[in-house]
Amino acid sequence: MIIKTNQDEIQNYLSDASNFSGNCRSVYLPFSELEIIEILKSCHQTKTKVTISGNGTGLNGGRVPQGGIIISLELMNKIISFDSTAKTITVQPGVILKDLQDYVESKKLFYPPDPTESNCFIGATVATNASGTRTFKYGPSRDYVEELRIVIPDGRIINISRNQFTAKNFNGKLIAEDGSEINFTIPNYKMPKTKNASGYFCAENMDMIDLFIGSEGTLGVISEIKLKLIDLPSSIFSCIVFFNEEINALNFIVEARDHSKNDSAENSSKKCDAQGLEFFDFNSLKLLAEKYSQIPAEAKAAVWFEQELSNNYDFIIDTWMSLINRYNGQTDKSWFAVNKNDQDKFKEFRHKIATTVNEIVTKRGLKKVGTDVAVPDKFFVEFYYLCKNKVENHNLDYAAYGHFGNSHIHLNILPKNLYEYELSQKIYSEICFEAVERNGTISAEHGIGKLKRNYLLTMYGESSIKQMAALKLVFDQNKILGIGNIFEEKYLNY
Amino acid sequence: MKIAVCVNHVPDTAAKINISSDGKSIDNTGVTYVVNPYDEFAIEEALKTKEKFGGDTIAISLGNESNKETLRKALAMGIDNAVLLKTEEYYDSLSVAKALAAEIKAQNSGLVFFGKQSVDFDNSIVGQLTAELLNYNCVSVVVEFELKENKIIADREIEGGKEVVETLLPAVITTQKGLNDPRYASLKGIMAAKKKVIEEKTLAKPNNFTEVIGMKKPAPKQPGKIIGTDSSAVPELVRLLREEAKVI
Ligand SMILES: Cc1cc2nc3c(=O)[nH]c(=O)nc-3n(C[C@H](O)[C@H](O)[C@H](O)COP(=O)(O)OP(=O)(O)OC[C@H]3O[C@@H](n4cnc5c(N)ncnc54)[C@H](O)[C@@H]3O)c2cc1C
Ligand SMILES: Cc1cc2nc3c(=O)[nH]c(=O)nc-3n(C[C@H](O)[C@H](O)[C@H](O)COP(=O)(O)OP(=O)(O)OC[C@H]3O[C@@H](n4cnc5c(N)ncnc54)[C@H](O)[C@@H]3O)c2cc1C
Question: A231, A261, A289 — which closes off a domain?
Fold first, then answer.
């Protein structure tokens, strides 16, 4: 392994894409699972805090250390095995998502999870249950995890495949590789039915592998991952439609969403079957217009959608065309990708809005305040306007975009000064509260980390947080791993 | 006015190119082809000119069946008609220019847009040759284009600045990055393009004056050197940049 102790070299590990930062003594870069065991065992003995680091693109401070040491998985970046018949791939945690996707696509297979930032590590996408545009059709990372190897803080290994260990009601049981048993109680809070990345995955009779997916580096170090792949779609229909009225764009999404869900359930020669339905509001388009002069000047909102094509090309295009016409989308000024190159440009367009927002607030020396809320579909349009009005009433700069097909909103407030920053946080917390009121989630994909713990408390209440802490203590008696992620340290001391 | 655009079908610049076993051509396995990026500026300028002054636009491409993909993209962006000058033979730049000139003449087009260069073989010559063969005026590497009746005022990119050139129609313009932001195909354009027929004209054998006799790959890059990972390595880095690489 490589150990970095020089503070110059450590700087890069002390923050993530949220601009939140911390400190630590040293960074350990293991080459193998054996080395992870060695590091954890020694930290377990000396009660040294350990924070696990992926590639630092997280948005919640999850990988940011508060003292102690860091284990960074960047050197464990090998593809271990690939099985084209079973359609699976087994990798080390430090493989970069984009590299994995390019690799399997060269073998005519497909790994659907696609967080907008594809520079992240696979291990971290599992640890945060990352999702993205295509989650609308294909679900989050969780749905593709077949098997995990996890090193828990005392150095034991849990090797778990899907369907291997299921809970009995709320009683969980695992058997570590050394034969020892781990028994625990699963918290009994009710998770929202929306897309969700808030707190541990907990449910009656759950598959125990799901506990580790989305556990944000608090239960163990994921050291190996086996993922399920699907066939690569032969071609993709990708389109950005501009609307002259925002409400038309929202209603277009609602109808396309319902068609996609129902048409595909009804028959296999689906009509509307979007992979993703992404929204951009007027402010987002204004920010993007600096880089994309092609955006029609009169556009007030845009929707990006993608759908797989087989031989029913004409039929599908006609269906979308009439849907776009029904909501007065601009068919003559909408953008249509005719090849992979253009499809990638649309992806870049979506990525650009996220990075542009980050750049603006970073330049102002502030942190962005961006929601990650999702609500049940039936509340969606009403909820969107509620969020928007809250921000507009205070005259704050903002840009709203996101995975609207999943009723999942990234409303980003761009404060200009400290006063506005504090105001933004207040509004943010009100929006979280409103989402919870509607049985929604405060974080649909970015996770809780160290920055959203208070909102998780709002969402589940203190007794549920205590149950989570009790569960964590079963795996981490000496309270060393990922301390401060998901809930405050004090809950480990009750 | 009839506005023509000449468009080439070239390997995607992101494609990994290998040389085929004959040692003088490209191995096409796994290589995807795209519209020559500079030709997208040419298409956009033709469309803009038509939107301003009216007229008819036509895209012309020389190559084999697969070039139709590029022509279809031009149609989807809004070009009215397309012609494929079909051949399976190797055409050198002059042969390409001769065939294009003949077609432009047949189409009676007095304003022709080219990309400034094909990213495949980088000859940067087809537009100028075609102009000469047609006896048209020619302005190359254009980053700003203005048409007033039959007068053209164009800015050309030159080292460290711009040159403003005036000329008259009929003319050939070769386009450079910066001239415009090419539009994406619209949904309406896609629907319309599907109904359009690409006209095909089969070409006779070319009379080439140059022949490609070999292709070579660049020498593999030397592996990089890591001289340290913290600030203590900076003095050594500066020394190497100055004394070995001689770049500072
Ligand atoms: C512009 C932008 C857009 C984004 N869009 C999306 C999006 O659409 N959807 C989405 O879900 N996310 C998105 N994100 C957030 C981020 O990319 C994801 O959360 C990603 O999964 C983080 O990966 P990383 O390698 O950077 O992890 P890091 O930030 O380094 O770590 C994330 C968390 O995972 C833990 N962790 C890392 N590796 C392991 C391991 N091997 N074992 C156990 N725990 C581990 C860390 O402790 C930390 O808590 C976006 C980020 C940016 C900057
Ligand atoms: C792998 C490969 C295989 C090829 N196989 C064939 C083949 O079998 N038969 C064949 O005829 N060509 C083929 N070509 C293309 C042909 O070689 C080039 O079109 C020709 O060499 C012109 O390139 P250039 O560098 O001289 O063009 P440049 O002078 O750099 O091009 C300048 C401009 O001229 C115009 N132009 C250039 N070529 C064309 C064209 N073909 N049609 C319309 N406008 C054009 C474009 O506007 C372009 O931007 C192939 C190219 C590649 C990469």
Answer: A231
